[in-house]
Amino acid sequence: MWETLVWLVHVAAAAGVIALVLIQHGKGADMGAAFGSGSAGGLFGASGAANFLSRSTAVLAAVFFSTSLVLTWISGHHAGTTSVMQQLPQGAATTPAPVVPATSDSKSSEIPK
After folding, report:
1. Alpha-carbon separation of residue 102 from 2, 105, 106, 109, 110 (angstroms)
2. pTM of the model
3. What is the DSSP letter of 41?
4. Secondary structure class of 3 (helix, strand, coil)
């Protein structure tokens, strides 16, 4: 149950980081707001939206990083985890591979001079 919850938070944080990065505008757009392009009268002011979006992105990136670490820890300490070699039936790893007979085609074995 905890693993599922961490996965859901991880995917939501990833989607949130993607959305917030796509919403943000570049650094060159700040000059237009500084000279009165009309965005200064918005909800956050001229630079308030940029600060809010960048801080929200940083928080979601920290959540994404944290859930990545937790998922790594869960996968390493998962109860009942065995290696691939331990899941093989007994004797399967020591069984020799089948021998493929070589062809006796004389033209393929000659080296051109």
Report:
1. 56, 9, 11, 11, 15
2. 0.54
3. G
4. helix
Per-residue pLDDT tens over the stretch 66-80: 999 999 998 887 766
Alpha-carbon gap, residue 14 to 61, rounded angstroms:
8
Distance, in Å, from the CA atom of 83 to the CA atom of 22, rounded to the nearest integer, reads 41
DSSP-derived letter for residue 67 is H
Instruction: Report yes or no: 24 and 54 within 8 Å, Cβ to Cβ.
Output: yes
User: Which distant-in-sequence residues (6+ apart) come within 8 Å of 85 by Cβ?
Assistant: 93
At 81, phi and psi to the nearest 5?
A: -75, 130
Token pair 């820890």: residue = 73
Closest CA to 68 of 2, 1, 13: 13
